[in-house]
Amino acid sequence: MIGYHEIRKIKVEKAREIVRRILIENNNNISKTARILKITRRTVRRSRDGPLGDRSRKPLVSPNKIKLRLEKLVIREGKDTGYRYRRLSKYIYDKYGIEISENTIKVILRRNNINRRKIRSRNGRVRHLYDYKYLIPFSNMQVDTKHILDYDALPKDVYMHIQFNNLPRYEYNIIDACTRTRFTAYSYEINTTYGWIFMLFVIHWLRMHNVRNHINIQGDNGVEFCSGSKKKEELLNNILNKFNVSFTSIPAGKHYRQGIIENSHRHDDEQFLAIHPIRCKTTKQFMYKAQQWQDTWNTARRSWGIEMNGITPLAKFKKYNTLISDRIFQFPTLLLDNLLQKTGSYVPTNYLFYDSSSISVFITSIASSKEV
User: What pTM value is reported for the model?
Assistant: First the structure.
């Protein structure tokens, strides 16, 4: 005869049915039934009085269990952000000031089957844009322009508010691939003059703060840079070579090569443009908020990019112990329209500057201006 424990391994309910049947055949004699099946009398009573299946082993009281409202918070933020336990723990602390351990969050995510969002390449391989481990600060940078009036990215009331109050329409960004430091400017129009002037201003700012290495700036084929024209790109590089800087346009259709700066645009929409512009009725108020957002990004907001490990751009920069001044993080957000009005007449044209020496004098005068 197969023993009770062997049958239980196959099916618990079947084992207890056998105990009940043998118990009835022996006139409900618990001791005799236990001897026949070679089990304890307590097991016989449990089979007779309890359910056929096993009861839950969940404790009735869990004094150390996280509060239900906090568990719901972790579940909601985990679904909304797609972050895993380490990043989610820091995110909740930064957003709500609530400290929840990584292990607790890991258990909550696992218990509620909240999986990490994964973005895979076509062949399943991971392809990094740079060798991040060996990057040095301000050696490889990406530049791009964002159209602020994006109906698909902004709430309708924010979109209408920006349009009605005539706030800046374009955002120019340069971001460092190593530290994720950002430099920002705004304008009401988009053209090559603004794009090139912004790059040159940032370059002079870096050189003024003791950045001496070669700088490579990568951009797309937008009209504000080179428009996909090799002749125009050659002209720009002739100007930038004077400052030990090179510019490279990405091939058409290869937007993933701009992944760092494109990802920052998404955070702009979610954490700045969708919230703060609606509180601004003038360009001055908007630029003040933009300066705060840039300072927050560079000095207070954690980054979870490759080799960043949840620290701020400023903290990552300080790890290198370079001779570069940390005042580089005090970069002023610029309104390019006002910048050109204050420094001279402005004639809209894609080929405004040809002489690199004149540009150098022009930008140096801007960088040393007390107004900026």
Answer: 0.71
